[in-house]
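chain below, 427 aa
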Amino acid sequence: MPLLLHLEGILSDFRHLFNSQNFALFQAFLFGFIATSGRGTLTELYQSSASQTRYWSFPKFLSRGNWDPDAIAICLLKRIQDVFSNWVYVYDTTKALKTGKTQWGLHFFRNFSYQGHRVNQSKFHFGHEFGALGLLCATPREWLLFPVWVKLIVPQTVRDKGDAVLKRICSKIPRGLILFDRGFARRSVFEMLLGLGHDILCRAKSNAVFYRLPKRPKRPGRGRPKKYGDRLQIHRLRYKELSILEKPYQVASEVVRTKMCPADVRLVVIRTRPKRSKPYRYFCVFTTDVALEIPKIVEYYRQRWQIETAFRDVKQHFGFDAYRVKSRKSINRFVQLSFVAASLTKLIFSIPAPHASDQRPSVKEVCEHLGIHWYHPRHLTQGLRVAYLQSHLRALEYSASCQEKTNSQNIQPISQHDTTLPFDKAA
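prediction:
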């Protein structure tokens, strides 16, 4: 119960973004995402939210409500950054459904990657693509990734193409370091983000080429000075043993230049060999923040994978790919609310309790409360957080629906008549 009350306190930070009715529906949506045990469709959200309104207020809230999902994402980002001082951004893309399954509303947003040449191919996938921003935060015990911002990518429009969505998101966030996978290692992406004042940490592709910094000639000649030096041979670098996160690595680092980025970058190469009879394998990461330390670079990119597990969690527990709406506006709002519910669920377990008596539950306490004795994870997973909150919500609903009638005079009734659910305010 203290966690649910703490969640209400966090939601008060979003109050200025809505009028009274829309704020009640906003609370009901988030409560429905957390409380539902199904896929997370609108009908299941309405049934789980314990809302006093009619069903049609839910789809109207998505299609006609006067509120801005980008403003909600900015407010959520500021709230998380106020709690954690050490953070970096993570950006990636995801799809709503896998290949071969139809999805509601696809006749509005067809995938044109294969239809551009009017070729009928069997690998045509049914599903929408989204660009998403996560905030990777460091706690004393672990790294946590909060899904913050998500927008629909529509390939056939200039406003909602892949790079345009990335620019719209990154132009509204405070300056910082953004982590990317190697699919974003393009000069257009680097020029755009460097122009916005961000730093980039990205993995290099297998065919990436790096050059040493050019040496100044003793006698400058005519013409432009050299921009690139000799081509860098990765296997000829000097590698040294380095312990990162209590694991030994063979690491080499050098400030180089590449045609993928207009600025100098720091290249970090990790060399591994599974067997002595096998050749070395090279893992290359480069960043525009030249002053960033090598252990930090390796640690940041190792934690980048959490955005992939965050996509899995929002699809499995918060109905990210279960929307049943057709318009672009409704889809963007639905998935943004799914991200907010996932982030707030993780946030209330990670914020220190204001009072010593209201300590956040540990992994052992959560497993004992749920009756789980066969699973002993190191840290709380999103599934355990959701199951823990759902058990408290079921107990709260039971205590609110109990009656004081009893056949025994010796039993004192302890049911609460005036107990209301945290989000039972939608009108």
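The chain is about 35% helix and 15% strand. The CA atoms of residues 267 and 286 lie 4 Å apart.
thats it, cya
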